[in-house]
Amino acid sequence: MAAIPIPLLSSLESTDLWAMYEQLFLSCLQTGDDKSAHLCLERLIDRFGATNEREMGLRGLYQEAVAVDDAALDKVLQEYDDALAEDPINTPLLKRRIALLRSLSRPTEAIVALVELLDASPTDIEAWTELADLYLRQKKFPQAVFCLEEVLLVAPNAWNIHARLGEVLYVSLAAPSAGNEHTQDKVLAEAVRRFCRSVELCEDYLRGYYGLKMATDRFLAETDHSPALSAALTTHSSSTSELPVLSKAAVEKLNERATSMIADIVRRRTIGNGKPELHQDSEIIAARELLDRTAQSRSR
């Protein structure tokens, strides 16, 4: 009779083991190893059961990954609908259905589904962030801003969300519905504040500094080209319900700080241990281009 290996008898099941199976499953899907992913999925289903909400979501993800065309994806979507008809509060399936609607280029239906999900779970940060992204792609800037503000109510120290909100505010200035000059000035000032909060929470956050420089560049350009606008931007509001506007001197200091930090971060990420490294990071490339434009404008 063959001896049974001692580790098989002594090892205890742990949550880490099944978390590793789940991570391995996801990694296999990402690398196109569908066969190994299916083996991991089978182990998880054997352990937790086919009716477990989390495993149902993973099974749906697997079916989406191996679908060969939109017709197969529509079939998966129908299976989601059938399962949700029996269990409308199955959150993993609800989120898989929303993700599938997005991949099928059906944003309106995805938005409706997300709104319904948030009605049932109003503190779901992931859902609010996803809804903000959908609204932004539809150029519905006020709705996107609202969603990101809801995220910050739950996670007030999320520096990336502060920066994202600043970006949405900044981009909204180019929209036809941006409003009059006074409204745009307030939006620009709020974008600057959001970027400032982002880098205050994470002092090495390149995206926050990039946004801060872009916003302060625009602020300074507008005040330089229009004395009347400059006075409007730098005069404190008499209303106690509004935040004081930014002074030009303060914005200049913020602009200098952002420029300095961007240059420092780019330098540190580009050179490691004294040896040049090849970087294809899109953020680093964009930051370099921004610094080059700044250098060119100053040399004129």
Largest sheet, order of strands side by side?
A: 1-2
| Rg for CA atoms | 25 Å
**Strand composition percent:** under 5%
- Main pleated-sheet profile: 2 strands, antiparallel
Order of helices and strands: HHHHHHHHHHHHHHEEH
Structural class call reads mainly alpha
**Arithmetic mean pLDDT:** 86
Cα separation of the termini: 87 Å
Helix content: over 70%
What's the number of helices?
A: 15
DSSP strand count: 2
Q: Shape from CA axes? A: elongated
Oligomer: single chain
* Spans of at least 5 consecutive residues with low confidence: 1-10, 236-241
Explain this structure.
With 300 residues, the chain is mainly alpha-helical. 75% of the residues lie in helices and 1% in strands. The chain contains 15 helices and two strands. The protein has helices at 6-10, 15-30, 34-48, 53-66, 70-86, 91-103, 107-120, 125-137, 141-154, 159-172, 181-201, 206-225, 227-234, 248-270, 282-299; strands at residues 271-272, 275-276. It has a two-stranded antiparallel ribbon with strand order 1-2. Helix 5 runs antiparallel to helix 6 (91-103) and helix 10 (159-172) runs parallel beside helix 12 (206-225). The model is unreliable at 1-10 and 236-241 (pLDDT under 50).
What's this entry about, in short?
By secondary structure, the chain is an all-alpha fold.
Features:
75% helix; two-stranded antiparallel ribbon; disordered N terminus; 2 strands; mainly alpha; 300 residues; 15 helices
Task: Please outline the helices and strands.
Elements: H1 6-10, H2 15-30, H3 34-48, H4 53-66, H5 70-86, H6 91-103, H7 107-120, H8 125-137, H9 141-154, H10 159-172, H11 181-201, H12 206-225, H13 227-234, H14 248-270, E1 271-272, E2 275-276, H15 282-299
Antiparallel strand pairs: 1-2
Helix pairs in contact: 2-3, 3-4, 4-6, 5-6, 6-7, 7-8, 8-9, 9-10, 10-11, 10-12, 11-12, 12-13, 12-14, 14-15
